[in-house]
Specification:
Number of strands: 9
Radius of gyration: 16 Å
Order of helices and strands: HEEEHEEEEEE
Shape: globular
Distance between the termini: 34 Å
Strand order of the largest sheet: 1-2-9-6
Strand content: 25-35%
Helix content: 10-25%
Low-confidence stretches: none
Largest sheet: 4 strands, mixed
Length: 138
């Protein structure tokens, strides 16, 4: 297990969160990222297999207003439903901090066996470049 973790740390860590000129904070390359690469690859896995629970605005009516704001800020609502990890919003990963652009450099795909999407770079991303997705493509 330790060997796999060290391999991931050496080979598969491409990004960090830092202040963004685009909006708040964003995700930035800490080294060049080749095209068609998942910049958020987990140790020994292409995807997170955490259980996703669908909740509605009605479900969260009595939740603290600041927590509701977090849900709205970090989760995409489709047809009135948010898909939130069963383990809760404290299990957010770095990909949740990507900003949106009409000219994204990161896309995504669905993969059988994964209940979360897999991100893929659409072009080579240079060190210090911000990773951007198009929120409307969700």
């Amino acid at each position: 297990m330790k060997k796999a973790l060290l391999k991931n740390l050496n080979d598969d860590i491409y990004c960090r969160i830092k202040p963004s000129k685009k909006h708040g904070v964003g995700v930035f390359a800490i080294r060049d990222i080749p095209i068609n690469t998942n910049p958020f690859k987990l140790t020994s896995s292409q995807c997170s297999k955490q259980k996703i629970i669908n909740i509605t605005d009605n479900d969260i009516k009595k939740i603290n207003s600041e927590v509701k704001k977090l849900i709205n800020d970090f989760y995409h609502k489709e047809n009135g439903v948010y898909g939130i990890p069963y383990k809760g919003i404290n299990s957010n990963d770095i990909s949740f901090y990507m900003n949106s652009s009409k000219n994204p450099n990161v896309g995504f795909e669905s993969v059988k066996g994964c209940n979360m999407i897999i991100f893929k770079t659409l072009k080579k991303i240079k060190k210090d470049e911000e990773l951007l997705i198009n929120y409307n493509d969700f």
